[in-house]
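Work package 3, deliverable 3.1, input record:
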Amino acid sequence: MEVKTGWCVSQALSWAHYDGEPYWIAFSRESGAVHLLNEAAYTLWTYIAAHPSSRIDQMLDALVGQQPESEESSSNVLEALRAMDRAGFIHPVWE
Amino acid sequence: MSRQDPPFDELAGSGLQLGIGPFLVHVRSELAAVREHLSRVYSDFPRTANTGGHFEIAITGSPGLRRWARRQARLYVDGTQPFLPLPERLAGAFFDWGLNWAIGQNAHHWLALHAAVVERNGRALVMPAPPGSGKSTLCAALAFSGWRFFSDEFALVHPDTRVIRPLPRPISLKNRSIEIIHSRHPDVVMTEENVDVEQQVFVHVRPPSDSQQRANEGAHARWIMLPRYQAGSPTIFAPLSKSECLIAVTDQCFNFNFLGDRGFQCLVELVRSADCFSLTYSDLDDALARLALMADR
């Protein structure tokens, strides 16, 4: 049986960004913690929040748009997912 | 102060109400060390014989055998005892340490940052930093060199308007900083040197009278500077990204969790509206001159 893994957001976050800077700052209203994340993480989180149970291939499309999928883009997505999973911002779901 | 100011002897009776920045603090103590401390470094502060206030602080001697041997002081804030007793010789400083605790725990009308703040030309310089960074030394030097002193401990930021409210209180100096400030400003009034429980020599310095008289005049943050004293270092001003600055500021915030998203948004905008940089220094004169140049531009 094929198990498809999707992702959902775990909690509401407030995001901040300053013009010209590569980072996004996420504030967890649940824990009160503040995290410094990259733009890929922000894009993924907002995508997952809008599309619960998103799969990685869907996120790749969202993140890299029409560009051909590459090893680097996949790795960026996975790294951003890991960072947000560790921070408790998202969690996997199994269909 | 007017002639009607009640004498500090009232501390041993019904107590005194001190106006300290935006707070009314009612304090009572029969201990001579507390009377000496307050009369020396709080003499410019408005005081009345009224009771009540935002905080009720009492410092008492210990009962039993401790009344005769190794005398101790006990601190009560609003009836609770947040700290273990200290040797009685620290009773005066205990008032300030207890007030720090009370403000950090309760002042949720404002966003409370662990930061020194001074103002010049209507613009505030905010210096968030952990203990040991040289923040208080730099703050004291600025406060007696043409900057208006707000606080060496707290930046009280209104969460909606982001106006910083002065909280001018005695400046705490330790070890070498005492001599540095005393040699530059021999007229400043300090408490006698004392040794805290970590064996650090410390004093409290009476804040400049001007800061006390203008304690109701707030200012917006124009600069956020992370100071660090480093022996032998040249004076280095290094730009800081706003993202990094925001993380540093949240690290030094006592209560933005308490205010939730409103607190976070306040910090985001506080940082957005300020120039952010770090200062590494060893030459105090050079650092002061450059900061004055920056503020007077």
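Helices of chain A lie at 39-50, 56-64, 71-87.
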